[in-house]
Amino acid sequence: MLDARNVLLTSHARPDGDSLGSQLALAAALRRLGKQVRIINIDPAPALYAFLPDLEIIEIADSATDPCDAVVVLECSSLDRTGVSGLEERMIINIDHHAGNVMYGSLNWFDETACACAEQVSDLIDALGVELTEAMATHLYVAILTDTGSFRHANITARTFEICRRIATAGIDPARIAAEVYTNGSLGHVRLTGMLLDRMQLEYDRRIAVLRLHDTMLAEAECAADDIEGIVNLPLAVRDVRAVVFFKHTGTEVRVSVRSKAAVDVRQVAVSFGGGGHRNAAGFTIEHPTAETTRQVITRIATAIANSEQ
Ligand code: AMP
Ligand code: MN
Known about the structure:
The chain is α/β, with parallel strands linked by helices. The protein has two domains: 6-182, inorganic pyrophosphatase (n-terminal core); 187-308, Diaminopimelate Epimerase, Chain A, domain 1 (Roll). It is 34% helix and 20% strand. It is built from nine helices and twelve strands. It has a six-stranded parallel β-sheet with strand order 3-2-1-4-5-6. Strands 7-8-9-10-12-11 form a six-stranded mixed β-sheet. A hairpin with a 3-residue loop joins strand 11 and strand 12. The longest helix has 18 residues, at 291-308. The model has no long low-confidence stretch (mean pLDDT 96). Bound molecules: adenosine monophosphate and manganese (II) ion. Manganese (II) ion binds at residues 18, 75, 97, 116-117, 147.
């Protein structure tokens, strides 16, 4: 990484707080070392993240053709998660914390114990000898705050808080950042949340909550398609609920998000449908879904719950 002069950064399609924060912090650090850095993502950031410093440096494209010395792929368990073509033949540095990473890089740094990819980026910035600026600290904090479900997930460790201590020392305001992330949303998001929860179904002895979204509901709630983050977690507030499945129907496909509690492994369910993620947060896409396939998803989640109770 130190030899490369021209570096391209990328991450997964439909970016989240960790992919955006990790890319922006690393870009800022590499620029401090005098490197030429570009970030190319296939999808724009959700409006929620508009407050992130330097967000505008991210270019939106589905291919990367210009020459560069190295491509750093963050937060992707496989290269196709980027959705960006033209990366295959490059010198790729794979930095990720998702179980099941297929080690597609020329260099692979896979750390499943990291609570967010931003933990790895924070260590990398340290190793590069770059001092954290307030902007970089903001990027890293947003990544860790959102990827840990507001400091609630199981992979939080003393290291997480040590990194956050250093981030806080760099001058960020955690309360202001939390306010940007959690209390600056749209009315449409809250309306859609109401509609989804109102129609929520419970399966498997109330242990699985099922949410279904159709495009018509987005229009009715006046909610943007990329403004649904976080809703999938809400049914977990119910004591009996062990897992949530959220079917998002668009056109001829359905994007499926799954969340679970404790030992319920929904990553395995996602993998069985060609997706991936973490034990308690995973996702996949079904092309041309039928009632039978969505029923199969619920059945496999029920099996994951049963397995966790053995
Ligand atoms: P989501 O439900 O989209 O918020 O995704 C939850 C987790 O699963 C995140 O860590 C994603 O990176 C991961 N994930 C979602 N979809 C896929 C997929 N098709 N392949 C691999 N990982 C995925
Ligand atoms: Mn992550």
